[in-house]
Amino acid sequence: PAGTCPCVSMATSERPLRPSVPPPPPSFVLTQRAMLAKPGAEAGAPAPTFLQRLCCVELKRRERLNEWMILDDNADAAPSLIERLLCRCTSAARSNSHIADVPKIRGLAGATLQRGPPDWRTSGSVQTLKWSHFDEEKRVATLQVFGGFGGLPSSGLWTEKDVLAWYCLINLGRLCNYSYRFEFYDDWRSADIKIMSNCCGCVPCCLPCCPAWCTVPDWLMKFNAVQVGEKVDGSHWVRNSSYFGAPMQYSYDLVEVVRPDGSPGAYFDDLAKVAPEAMLVSR
Known about the structure:
two-stranded antiparallel ribbon, ten-stranded antiparallel sheet, alpha+beta, 12 strands
């Protein structure tokens, strides 16, 4: 056009066109959220219903799993009603177990997914031992599954499906101080899993404000976990179960979907295939 400098026209015409950029993969998006997003800030999460408030549970978004389970120490979360009834009346930060410092079981400090058969009742559940109580010298980790009396803050560390039965079972587990004690072998390749409780749900004289003092005997119920393959880093376990003294049988695969630093784990792609989009946790 008239009045246009020919040098400018030439520079413009010779400028290469910018190629189209494909959208980033989901794993990249998760990594960026882990690095940039404020932990615990669940933008767009649905408001809790009256029943969820009453039962002291909440729904969390699967796509932000790394933020609310792994990166957030929950220091600013106000205690729920049931936590106050169990004598936890002030906010308390989660305590890092430093399981990630043991290379052979490091994956357990990330988020691990129960990748089980379709008929396995807790297939799709996700949990972490990052905030458990861990004694490296004794090779023992203890986790209050849904929280409970005493111990470390542990609400929101174990997910279940959004069904009414779990609204009740999560709180029964809290009252009973339902806990798992992981006893690792010398080579860290396997662990016996002990079930512990304060018997509040089955012994009338036991009060909920009591630690998990009773261990379920092995002849009644026994679990173990064994690492799979040559790579020993805690990213893939097989969980086996035995009831009433029967031989151990396969239950599910336990795989790392989010690493301890919040980045996608080795089996991240399985998360969307197996876990529900809305994940129920204790609050």
